[in-house]
Structure formats: structure tokens, C-alpha cells
Design brief:
Blueprint (H helix, E strand, L loop, with lengths): L37 E5 L8 H14 L4 E5 L5 H4 L10 H7 L3 H4 L1 E2 L5 E4 L5 H11 L7 H9 L5 E5 L6 H9 L2 E6 L3 H5 L1 H13 L8 E7 L10 H12 L13 H7 L4 H4 L4 H16 L1
Parallel strand pairs: 1-5, 1-6, 2-4, 2-5, 6-7
Antiparallel strand pairs: 3-4
InterPro entries: AAA_dom, DNA_Partitioning_ATPase, P-loop_NTPase
Organism: Hymenobacter arizonensis (Siccationidurans arizonensis)
Protein name: Chromosome partitioning protein
Length: 291
């Protein structure tokens, strides 16, 4: 099943004095066992297409509705982390994957009380190489195993995968119950959906990997129907022809999302009146209806 990519990711350089050296004591993350969480990997083959923005706003919208949500930053760039916190964090995604435990102790609470972040930093890539060396036969299941053991108190886990289809993305997809593919309304973004489809089909069909991985759908971000009169609309029409029944609601261009990410505040709190927040509300409704 084909899919892909996403919208504008804002990466800001954070001055050193923005970091909180003595953050307020956080509440404890949820530990009460429920049904296993829905785990959604947000995936894309290329960068700069809005994958992280989608991860941030889907998780923020779910949390604003009262769900207990964990956002796992599995992208070596760490943009989801810098968009949600200025706190120092003693443990990161790479360390948790390598240790195979310690998830709950590593979480950072965001300004939305039911949204928690597993942060990442520059050590994710070298830690992933250590993980592969340590577990060459089953490294792909490292995140799956940690979530199965410690994420039972969450309703949703959103995984922000890196902009590639390499080992770290494989770890995210093998942990997921579902995956979602944002895409830019451009020819190259549409063309690259097939590569993602090849990987996800392999994961579904290869014995022992993740046969129960379900595709939620694809949608277009940074959408503007007035661009060159019909260009964006033509791309969406082509996607509907190529992937019938799999194309979801568009998310309009909205630069105010960047303001929220710059200030490390979820957009649902920073710019609740923005077009993009309204569009992500509709998209979240559609995601929930497809689960």
C-alpha cells in the first residue's frame, strides 16, 4: 500500500539561555494498564515536507481531547523535541532503546498535561549503531519491546520517524500498529510514495516483522488551492486516482505553526484559532474514524 511524506518542519536554533536549568517538578506519566495503545508512526522518505509538524499537531490535538499521549521523537534532527521543551533531559530516545528499559523515567511533560515526550538528541544515530551491533538479529524490535513493557498507561503513541527509509524508520514501523503518511502537494512528493509502499509491504509480509501494520492514509500539508491556479488541486486529484480511498483531508498553509514551535508551546495552546489547527482537528477526526 503506497504513501508518504509531509509539510513544513520548522527547525530553530535555540539560544543556550532558553534552557531551563531548574525545571518545575513534573507529574508522573500514566502507568495504569489499559488496552494496548494505538501506536501511529508518521513516516516520510524525504525531509522538509511536514512530518514533524504532523506528529506535533496530531499528538497535540489528541491530548487536547483528554487522551493520554506519548510522542516519541525518533528523528535524529530532534525537531519535535525542540518544538515542545526547553528543559534539559538526562535520558534520550537512543539511550532508552539501547538499555531496553527506562521509558517512563525519560519522559518530559509538555504544556499540555496529557502529552508526554520521549526526547532525542544528537546521540540517537550513534546509539542506533550500537543497538544494531548489540542486537543484530532483532534490533528492529527495540522500540516495540520498550513500549510493550512500559507504555500501557497511554491511549496513543505517536512516533516521529526520520526523513529516510533506513534502520531507525524500520524500528519505528516495527513498533507501530498503524502508519500515516503526510505529503507535500508536489510531483516529487507524490512520486516518492511508492518507495515507502515497498518498505511497508516488506514489513507486513516478511515473517516475524509486523504483519498487523495498518495504513491509515495519506494527506497533503502546506496546501494552497490557489497556487498556480490549479497545481495543488491537480496533485490531490492525481493522488485520489492513484490511491483511491486513501487520501485524507488537506492541511492548509499556516505560518503560525512556526510561532508555536519557536516558543516550545503546542499549537493547540499557542494559536488555537489558526487554519492549520482547525485542519488538524478535522484530520484527527478522520484518523480516529479509520482506526
Amino acid at each position: 500500500m503506497p504513501i508518504l511524506a509531509s509539510y513544513f518542519c520548522y527547525a530553530f536554533l535555540i539560544p543556550e539561555n532558553f534552557i531551563l536549568r531548574h525545571p518545575m517538578k513534573k507529574k508522573n506519566p500514566p502507568v495504569k494498564e489499559k488496552q494496548p495503545p494505538v501506536i501511529i508512526a508518521v513516516v516520510g522518505r524525504k525531509g522538509g515536507v511536514g512530518k514533524t509538524t504532523t506528529s506535533l499537531n496530531l499528538s497535540g490535538e489528541l491530548a487536547s481531547r483528554g487522551y493520554q499521549v506519548l510522542l516519541v521523537d525518533l528523528d535524529v534532527q530532534g525537531d519535535a523535541t525542540s518544538a515542545l521543551t526547553r528543559e534539559e533531559y538526562p535520558t534520550s530516545t537512543g539511550q532508552v532503546l539501547l538499555a531496553g528499559s527506562g521509558l517512563l523515567d525519560a519522559l518530559v511533560q509538555t504544556k499540555l498535561p496529557t502529552l508526554w515526550l520521549l526526547p532525542t538528541d544528537d546521540d540517537l544515530k550513534p546509539r542506533s549503531k550500537e543497538l544494531i551491533a548489540h542486537r543484530p538479529d532483532d534490533f528492529r524490535f527495540a522500540l516495540r519491546d520498550v513500549l510493550a513493557a512500559e507504555a500501557g498507561g497511554f491511549d496513543f503513541v505517536i512516533i516521529d520517524c526520520p526523513p529516510s527509509l533506513e534502520d531507525i524508520t524500520l524500528i519505528g514501523l516495527c513498533a507501530a500498529t498503524h502508519y500515516l503518511a503526510p505529503a507535500l502537494p508536489s510531483y516529487f512528493s507524490l512520486k516518492s510514495l511508492n518507495k515507502l509502499a515497498e518498505l511497508t509491504t516488506l514489513i507486513q509480509q516478511e515473517p516475524g516483522m509486523n504483519p498487523n501494520l495498518h495504513f491509515i492514509g495519506l494527506f497533503f500539508t502546506d496546501f494552497n488551492p490557489r497556487v498556480r491556479n490549479t497545481l495543488h488541486a491537480d496533485i490531490v486529484a492525481a493522488a485520489n486516482h492513484l490511491f483511491p480511498g486513501q487520501v485524507m483531508a488537506n492541511v492548509r498553509t499556516d505560518k503560525r505553526l512556526g510561532d508555536a514551535q519557536r516558543d516550545a508551546v503546542p499549537a493547540q495552546l499557542r494559536t488555537p484559532e489558526s487554519n492549520a489547527v482547525a485542519d488538524f482537528q478535522l484530520l484527527t477526526d478522520e484518523v480516529l474514524s479509520r482506526l
